[in-house]
Amino acid sequence: MSGASAAASETARYERLMSIGEVLANLRVDFPDTTISKLRFLESEGLVEPRRTAAGYRKYSWEDVARLRYVLTAQRDHYLPLRVIRDQLASLDAGQSAAGLAPTAIGDSPDGRGDGGRLRPALVAVAPTQQPEPSVDPADVVMRREDLLANSGLTESTLAALEQYGLITERPGGGYDADTLEVATAAARLAEYGLEARHLRAYRAAADREIGLFAQLVAPLARQNGPAARARAAETVRDLTACTERLRGALVRSGLRQTLGR
C-alpha cells in the first residue's frame, strides 16, 4: 500500500470516531462538571480505552461514551468508588449482569452501526423504563480517603490543603460523605483555573454564615417528631441551598458582566 493510500485508510478509519473535545461536549449536557483532565484520569484508571491515531490523538467510539456515561452516573447518583465501578464494568465485559448497564448491540454511532453496518456487542445505559434504584442520602455515604481522591481528581497535597483551611473534614467516625465529594470535585475543577485552597477560605466563611442563618429556620422543624417533619426539614434545607446557589451565581455573573464587556 502506498503512503497516500495508507494515509487515506487511516483517515477513513478514524473519521467515524470522536475527539476528546467532542466527547466532552457530548457528556457535559448531562454532566456539566466533566473536564478533559477527568476523562484522561478515567482512562489512566483503565475504565475506558480510546483508540489512538498514528499521531497519538485519542479517538472515542460511542461504546466508549456509553462506558463514560456509566462511570459518571455511578459516581454522581450512587457515589460508587472507582474500584466498584471497575468491577461492574469487568462483569459486563464478561457478559454478566450489573446494575445500571445491560449488554446489547451497538456500533460506533447512535444507530448501532459500525464499520460496514455490522453490529457488535457493547455496553449502553439501561432503558429508562426500568425502575431506578432508591436514592441515597448523601449523609449516609461514607468513603475512604483514597476513594475521595480517585472520584474527585484531587491530589493528596490539595486535599491536605483543603483540610487545613476547613473546607473538607472527616466524619466523626472517620471517612468522608457525599457532600464532601461535591466540595472536593468543585475544588479540583477550580484548581484547573489556578485557584488554590487558600483562595477558597471565603467560601468556608460564607457557608458558616449561611449555616447559622438557616439553622434558625430549620431547627424548629428538626425538633418535631415523626418522619414527615424530618422530610419537611430536609426539603427546606434543599430549597434554601438551591435558592442561595442561584442567588450567588446571579450576583457573580452580574458583577463580572463589565469584565466580559457585556
| Low-confidence residue ranges | 99-135
How many individual helices? 10
Total E-strand runs: 4
Number of domains in the coordinates? 2
CA-CA gap between termini: 56 Å
Q: Report the β-strand fraction as a percent range.
A: 5-15%
Helix content: 40-55%
Instruction: State the name of the first-level CATH class of the largest domain.
Output: Mainly Alpha
What's the overall geometry? globular
Radius of gyration: 22 Å
- The order of strands across the largest sheet is 1-2
Structural class: mainly alpha
CATH topology name of the largest domain, in short, is: Multidrug-efflux Transporter Regulator, Chain: A, Domain 2
| Mean pLDDT across residues | 78
The H-and-E topology, N to C, reads as HHHEEHHEEHHHHH
Largest sheet: 2 strands, antiparallel
> In the CATH hierarchy, what is the architecture of the largest domain at level 2?
Orthogonal Bundle
Structure commentary:
The chain is mainly α and 262 residues long. It folds into 2 domains: 3-125, Multidrug-efflux Transporter Regulator, Chain: A, Domain 2 (Orthogonal Bundle); 138-256, Orthogonal Bundle (Multidrug-efflux Transporter Regulator, Chain: A, Domain 2), CATH 1.10.1660. The protein is 54% helix and 5% strand. The chain contains 10 helices and 4 strands. It has helices at 3-14, 20-28, 36-44, 62-78, 82-93, 145-152, 156-164, 178-191, 201-222, 227-256; strands spanning 51-52, 58-59, 101-105, 121-125. The strands form 2 sheets. It has a two-stranded antiparallel ribbon with strand order 1-2. A two-stranded antiparallel ribbon has the order 3-4. A hairpin with a 5-residue loop joins strand 1 (51-52) and strand 2. The chain is globular, with a radius of gyration of 22 Å. Mean pLDDT is 78; it is low at 99-135.
